[in-house]
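User: What would this chain look like folded?
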Amino acid sequence: MQTIQNEIRRHLPRSGEARRLFHGRGQTFEGYADLTIDSFAPVVLVVLYRERSQKWLDELTELLLAELPETEAVLLQERCRAGAPSRLLWGTLPETVEALEEGLRYRLRLGEAQNIGFFPDMAAGRRLVRERAEGKRVLNLFAYSCSFSVAALAGGAQQVVNLDMNRGALELGRLNHRINGLDPRRASFLSLELFRSFGRLRRLGPFDLVVCDPPATQGKSFTAESHWPKLVRRLPELLSGEGEVLACLSTPHLLPAFLDGLFAELVPRARLLGSHDAGPGFPEARPGQGLAIQHYRLGKPA
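Assistant: Here's the prediction, encoded as structure tokens.
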């Protein structure tokens, strides 16, 4: 437990901010590749990718309560089990739990589904969108719970269009806009399949910034190797003359060079403005195999 304790102490949350306390999935801590721990005050979420004994879980809970004494609940999600069930290790889960990040709030669905509605490792992406959004028309593809949209509007975006097939996720996205006091007239929510919707998106565009954050795989509707090329090829249809793209890759066996190669081949006038990862709170044993955020801009048409 000493390794976990040392890492938690390095990442203790400040002012209630959402925080990754322990990131074992990057395989930098021997024996803990199955473990992540996140703080969403006043709840600590433990996620396991292999089974651990109840004795080990009791020791971990004791450690967490000692290091974070204001904790009201410790929730375990077992990704190693069918359906990724959740159960309380300690305390009582509050009726409402939110992730606080740079002054913005995002409602969580703890205990309800595998994905809780918020990805802490995408903080760098949300920050970048917020910094680039002022006055822009933004298209948020694979929007899920619309955290990029919240960040864009907080950064002064003129309009955001959110697209995702999951109606429930978009409803959570609407709620995220309301709890942050954002003008509902500046955001729209489309429950559509992307590759059948380019005509409608063209009519809504052009967009100055397109955010692409697909899941690593989504059944037949999206697999990285098959669908990223289709998406990249068609992005210029949706963009203004010198529009920007934020392309997020979360497929461990594909490196950022995969996206760079696609843009070089299929959108040759695109230029890479920057490459970002999840940051020091998400260490990776092999650089490039965690989250990659590639930021491109279209050059002027010839």
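The longest helix spans residues 54-67. If you want, I can go into more detail on any region.
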